[in-house]
Amino acid sequence: MSTIQTLPNYINGRWCASPNATDYLDVINPATAEILAQVPISPAAEVNQAVAAAVAAFATWRRTPAAERVQYLFKLKNLLEEHYEDLAQTITIECGKTWAESKGEMRRAIENVEVACGIPMMMQGTNLEDIATGIDEMMIRQPLGVAAVICPFNFPGMIPFWFLPYAIATGNTYIVKPSEKVPLTMQKIFHLLDKTGLPKGVINLVNGAKETVDAILDHPQIRAISFVGSTPVARYIYSRAAANGKRVQCQGGAKNPLIVLPDADIEMTTRIAADSAFGCAGQRCLAASIAITVADARHSFTEAIAETAKNRVVGNGLDKGVEMGPVIDGRSKNRIEELIQQGIEEGADLLVDGRQPNISGYEQGNFIRPTILQNVNPSGEIARTEIFGPVLSLIHLDTIDDAIALVNSGQYGNMACLFTSSGAAARKFRYEAEAGNIGINIGVAAPMAFFPFSGWKESFFGDLHGQSNHAVEFFTQTKVVVERWPSNWSRQF
Ligand code: NAD
């Protein structure tokens, strides 16, 4: 008889079962439908305990020199490298993406730890002598106190690292609320965080869902909240946390367009566009969802992308040679299939149909093969809604101006990409496109850890994004000191 583990929380340096939870959810492998664990929906009482631990730890942690604080991150970096394969495997098992994609994800997580190791430099303030004769002024950065992050399912290893390393390196104490769909990766990572010897209470893990999130949003001692997830929830969290006087940054959903100009290298463009649309089964906030072909790009690109989509190897991400895994759950699969049907009803032609595939050995998995709709109505629902699955919509337009106008008419602004060999077209696009992450002959314009993850419009609520110097600013408050020292001091010595 197999026993299914109920996941504990990690509060004040200790692993503890959730004593107050009454609701539990199954954590399910999306490729096999195997139940992997049960996750508690931690109620407010446990959020309160985590906050109390984080508040107590802050008093000493903020006084720990920055150069000393980052020593824990150096240790963490080594531990993450040591357990790299195992962490990647866990991501694949609970989230479905291929092992190679999971390794890429963990690499991005580690890069953020590396960047945050530079906090003694990045956290420095500024000063100016003699703002008036004999008076000096300085700006210093101080940590806020307790901060928390609420995470989505699609990058269980990476997304917490857009925030956590910067938060603690700048002297804050921290609470992570992973997605209830994929809590196993953070369990493993917290075992590594525990091994670094971080003082108790500096980092805390509270599992749960909406009830847990609401307790975080309303807790008066949490000073700052980072969120990554869908736009409706981002908007809700931004409003409620801001109404409670907190500093908030919320990264939301997306509908990312690619424009293909006739002078693009079609072979390269197709390969990159397919990786963007179908990589991680389309469950990336930087996944291409619309490809706009301009003028003569239409035929060559359409044929090539259809061929590539049909040939993509779909299966369990742990199996060798698999290029695309399942989507996260049955609800998601149904939703995606309904949206494909809606696209057809809106007049699109189904060029490649990936619905209801037969993946031998994984009949219970949530699989959809790559799907392509062509002649999609630019103002229809399918061209506007985030699908978050391996579905690419093709739209044909006559000019680059029309294509940019369509890009800019969308509600989201997470990413927009252009494929061309013209520098002038590239510059025009970079200048005019209303999105925060721009790719030129790049299909997933994911900012490296030393740049901010710059979503715009309804892909982002707030002003400071995750990663790099934005994270340092987000997790610190500036203090300005104006100093004058009487000049009679010398008489004393
Ligand atoms: P989601 O919004 O459903 O859930 C995200 C988190 O919010 C989870 O931890 C969940 O427990 C919590 N939550 C869900 N509903 C809530 C509610 N009503 N009240 C309070 N908390 C709630 O998102 P998801 O499905 O896990 O992730 C996919 C979404 O995330 C996509 O829209 C994707 O585009 C977006 N995403 C955005 C970025 C980015 O950087 N912009 C990155 C990754 C994912």
Count of DSSP H/I helices: 15
Shape: globular
Sketch the major β-sheet: 7 strands, mixed
CATH class of the largest domain: Alpha Beta
The proportion of strand residues reads 15-25%
Q: Key terms for this structure?
A:
seven-stranded mixed sheet; alpha/beta; six-stranded mixed sheet; Aldehyde Dehydrogenase, Chain A, domain 2; 2 domains; 22 strands; 493 residues; Aldehyde Dehydrogenase, Chain A, domain 1; binds nicotinamide-adenine-dinucleotide; 22% strand; globular
Notes on the protein architecture:
It is a single chain. Helices cover 36% and strands 22% of the residues. The chain is an alpha/beta fold. The chain has 2 domains: 266 residues, Aldehyde Dehydrogenase, Chain A, domain 1; 185 residues, Aldehyde Dehydrogenase, Chain A, domain 2, CATH 3.40.309.10. It has a 7-stranded mixed beta sheet, with helices on both faces. Strands 9-8-7-10-11-21 form a 6-stranded mixed beta sheet, sandwiched between helices. A 3-stranded antiparallel beta sheet has the order 5-6-22. Strand 12, helix 10 and strand 13 form a beta-alpha-beta unit. The longest helix is centred in the N-terminal third of the chain and has 18 residues. It is globular. The relative contact order is 0.14.
